[in-house]
């Protein structure tokens, strides 16, 4: 069953972040066989935000790919970490979603193994 | 035994195998979901003057075009157009394109069918939502405009991934706010099924 994983980026949190470069990297992920569908939107809600949502049947595999693609050796990794939130559906969809990453390191991070 | 006034209910629990064909409609991506689409909410600040774009840079950045502006002008709209966001499902080239032009806060939730392989403009006149072109084909899946629970002056907009995906399946609105977003970063994070697209200040 398809599960959704969403990445939100709030560029104002890291003005130095090259958003276009991040977009390119995330767009490349959409070509992966791990991704069955994807959505994107951008707008303002007190601050500017970009949302990337991927639908996958393999959450663990996708999360691993995302981590290596955007948080691994990527030149923007450090900046992106200051400006992003990543969540995914849990066993009961969004009712028990998992927070995989948050720009605030004080907030708890769930493991995708919980699904 | 039940009396006449009593209704006897029963149900059967049946275990489905993962490859059961009856699960196909739930497990496979529907045609509706497969259609790459683009949508952009726009706020119209009504005025007596000829229609203009408030911030042309933002208009372009949000993938709005001169043609879009010309279409909106041809509808007789007056005032300023404010680009407030955009969204896309799937990859370009998009087979469906929607502009949603809101003037003021809605009084109740509004459902607008998503276009099927074409371009559609929905625009608010008074409390009415008009569609252009009138005969544009649409899908069952919808955009839903609703009043934000926390701030009645805000409008939430959701784009359904497929018909019925936001309600009836136990899926509620998804927000990170309840789980520790600090103040000043209330940008919403969307779920795939409940895509919260934007806010329109009333």
Describe the sheet with the most strands of chain A.
5 strands, antiparallel
- If you average the pLDDT of chain B, what whole number results? 76
Shape of chain B: elongated
Rg of chain A, Cα atoms, Å? 13 Å
Q: How would you describe the overall organization of this protein?
A:
The complex is a heterodimer of chains A (115) and B (202). With 115 residues, chain A is an alpha+beta fold. In chain A, 27% of the residues lie in helices and 37% in strands. A 5-stranded antiparallel β-sheet of chain A has the order 2-3-1-4-5. Chain A is globular. The model of chain A has no long low-confidence stretch (mean pLDDT 90). Chain B has 202 residues and is mainly beta. In chain B, a hairpin with a 6-residue loop joins strand 9 (138-147) and strand 10 (154-160). Chain B starts with 23 loop residues before the first helix and ends with a strand. The chains are: A alpha+beta (115), B mainly beta (202). The interface between A and B is large, with 37 and 41 residues. Strand 2 of chain A pairs antiparallel with strand 4 (85-89) of chain B.
Summary?
By secondary structure, chain A is of the alpha+beta class. Chain A is built from three helices and five strands, in the order βαββααββ.
List strands and helices in order, with pairings.
The complex is a heterodimer of chains A (115) and B (202).
Chain A: E1 3-9, H1 19-30, E2 37-45, E3 47-56, H2 59-72, H3 77-81, E4 84-90, E5 93-102
Antiparallel strand pairs in A: 1-3, 1-4, 2-3, 4-5
Helix pairs in contact in A: 1-2
Chain B: H1 24-27, H2 31-34, E1 37-46, E2 52-53, H3 56-61, H4 66-74, E3 79-83, E4 85-89, E5 96-102, E6 110-115, E7 119-125, E8 128-132, E9 138-147, E10 154-160, E11 194-201
Parallel strand pairs in B: 1-5, 2-3, 5-7
Antiparallel strand pairs in B: 1-3, 1-4, 6-9, 7-8, 9-10, 10-11
């Amino acid at each position: 069953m398809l599960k959704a994983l969403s990445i939100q980026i709030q560029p104002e949190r890291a003005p130095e972040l090259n958003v276009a470069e991040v977009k390119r990297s995330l767009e490349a992920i959409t070509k992966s066989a791990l991704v069955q569908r994807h959505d994107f939107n951008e707008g303002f809600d007190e601050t500017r935000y970009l949302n990337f949502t991927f639908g996958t049947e393999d959450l663990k595999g996708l999360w691993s790919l995302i981590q290596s693609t955007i948080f691994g050796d990527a030149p923007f990794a450090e900046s992106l970490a200051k400006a992003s939130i990543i969540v995914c559906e849990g066993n009961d969809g969004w009712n028990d979603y998992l927070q995989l990453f948050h720009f605030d390191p004080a907030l708890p991070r769930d493991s995708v193994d919980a699904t | 035994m039940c009396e006449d006034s009593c209704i006897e209910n029963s149900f059967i629990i049946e275990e489905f195998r993962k490859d059961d064909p009856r699960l196909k409609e739930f497990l496979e991506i529907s045609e509706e979901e497969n259609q790459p689409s683009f949508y952009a909410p726009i706020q119209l600040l009504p005025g007596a003057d000829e229609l203009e774009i408030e911030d042309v840079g933002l208009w372009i950045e949000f993938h709005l075009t001169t043609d879009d502006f010309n279409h909106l002008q041809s509808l007789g709209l007056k005032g300023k157009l404010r680009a407030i966001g955009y969204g896309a499902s799937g990859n370009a080239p998009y087979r469906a394109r929607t502009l949603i032009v809101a003037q003021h806060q809605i009084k109740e939730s509004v459902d607008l069918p998503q276009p099927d392989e074409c371009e559609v403009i929905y625009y608010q006149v008074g409390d009415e939502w008009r569609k252009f072109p009138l005969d544009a084909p649409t899908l069952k899946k919808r955009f839903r405009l609703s009043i934000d629970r926390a701030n009645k002056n805000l409008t939430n907009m959701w784009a359904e991934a497929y018909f019925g995906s936001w309600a009836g399946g136990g899926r509620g609105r998804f927000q990170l706010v309840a789980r520790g977003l600090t103040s000043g970063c209330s940008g919403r994070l969307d779920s795939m099924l409940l895509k919260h697209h934007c806010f329109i200040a009333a």
